[in-house]
## 1
Amino acid sequence: MIRRASLAVLVALGALTVISSPAHARACMIDYHCETYYYSDSTRTTLVGVKYENCVGDETWVGRRGSYPVFNENPC
């Protein structure tokens, strides 16, 4: 009985962890310049961070990762 209750608690906590994890934008393709803008809410009014990826794959972060990404990709 205690094992089942413990298992149920662990499963519930695992589900909450997955649900509350920030969304990830897709990977930038080779020979592309990419920008990922992260917002704090679904209306995308509050920008909390930006990730820049240049044509050789170097990344630069400003701010933090939010739950609502917008991904832009342009060829080099």
Note: The CA atoms of residues 39 and 48 lie 5 Å apart.
## 2
Amino acid sequence: MAEKLTPEVHAAYERIHDSEEFTQLRSNYLRFVVPMTVGFMLWYLLYVVCSNWAPGLMGTQVFGTINVALLFGLLQFVTTFGIAWVYARYSARAMDPIAAGLLDDFEREVGR
């Protein structure tokens, strides 16, 4: 069941939403997420495009029975975990302090 918002809580949410700190938090988030999402999607589409239209490249043996297609596929996992690790570090440095300050302000304002 959702918590009912009192007028005080609603006013606190509105004040925080309109604050410079919240704008900075949202900006920091988008500054990371948008380029990473675009970059990852382009990287993934390169994999798909090469798989469909460059089978000679993707079938190229790198060593033993390992070919370029297998390496591309495995690198998708490496990229995913790498982005998650970089995001965690970025978030801790650029977003968490702002979010913690906003939460403190909110809790002080509504008396929680």
Note: The two ends are 19 Å apart (CA to CA).
